[in-house]
């Protein structure tokens, strides 16, 4: 066995993406882990539990708003469509669209957690037996081959304020990439969380039952399993706060005691008080997000707000349609 060594950029050869992202992220001065790695089977289960918490307003608020949105969308979109959901998860939010928009003939959910996605697709197919469901296991933040019927227009669906997990520049890049994937005459229905009371935001990401903390810490369990590593998860603590200057909630794992971790042959040192930044969740006013969408080549066709401006949903139309 080789002795553990400090990582140097350029050391990584023929390793999988997860390995590379973890080593690079934990070797930075300000350590990071990418939030897409939350979603193994256990992480997806934790997130489903988070969505049922009283404190976590985005899920329930958006879910209550979506039937109204779906009825409006059904009046706007009257052709035959393929619906592509980015980061599909448990597929509960798509049901109002499938119930009301009669022209949806094909549904293509994309998610990084394949087992969780397949289970959800089985349940959805039982509820909508006439719908052609084609799940795609993949990272929707990268280009994914989408098996759409060529004669169908495309509607993208990106609920849950996941767009907020990207920095504004990353969000712009995603919107541009989604526009290229969906093509001319396409639409994108997207959920966007709004700016609101810091106290409300703090409660949403620091629930009393500690489910969000378990969800955050689970990413370390996943690293342990992948690397056969020795991270002592008990030496880390969940920490989330609203950064008003950036307009986002930041989620971190705080190291409680200085120690060394070995990932394969790579040594990672942690000092007490050091954090691993695992997620940011940006919040937008409707005007801010409209500007972002327009700068990414989309036209804001319609916009819906939940009561007390707690959440927003946008229907974007590919601006190429207007050229």
Characterize the structure shown.
This protein is α/β, with parallel strands linked by helices. The chain is built from nine helices and 15 strands. The strands form three sheets. Strands 3, 4, 5, 6, 7, 8, 14 and 15 form an eight-stranded mixed sheet that branches. Residues 1-14 have low confidence and may be disordered.
Short description:
This protein is of the alpha/beta class and 323 residues long. The chain has helices at residues 17-27, 41-50, 57-76, 95-100, 114-127, 168-182, 198-205, 211-227, 286-295, and strands at residues 5-6, 31-32, 81-86, 104-111, 132-133, 136-137, 153-158, 187-193, 236-243, 248-255, 259-263, 266-270, 275-282, 298-305, 311-318. The strands form three sheets. Strands 3, 4, 5, 6, 7, 8, 14 and 15 form an eight-stranded mixed sheet that branches.
Protein traits:
alpha/beta; 9 helices; 8-stranded mixed β-sheet; 4-stranded mixed β-sheet; single chain; 15 strands; 323 residues
Topology:
Blueprint: E1 5-6, H1 17-27, E2 31-32, H2 41-50, H3 57-76, E3 81-86, H4 95-100, E4 104-111, H5 114-127, E5 132-133, E6 136-137, E7 153-158, H6 168-182, E8 187-193, H7 198-205, H8 211-227, E9 236-243, E10 248-255, E11 259-263, E12 266-270, E13 275-282, H9 286-295, E14 298-305, E15 311-318
Question: Could you spell the SSE succession in H and E letters?
Answer: EHEHHEHEHEEEHEHHEEEEEHEE
- Fraction of residues in helices? 25-40%
Q: What shape does the CA trace take?
A: globular
The number of distinct helices, counting runs of at least 4 residues, comes to 9
* Record field, number of beta strands: 15
What composes the largest sheet?
A: 8 strands, mixed
How large a portion of the residues is in β-strands, by DSSP E? 25-35%
Average pLDDT works out at: 90
What structural category arises from helix and sheet content?
Answer: alpha/beta
Q: Please mark out the parts with pLDDT under 50 across 5 or more consecutive residues, or reply none.
A: 1-14
Rg: 20 Å
* Gap between N and C termini: 62 Å
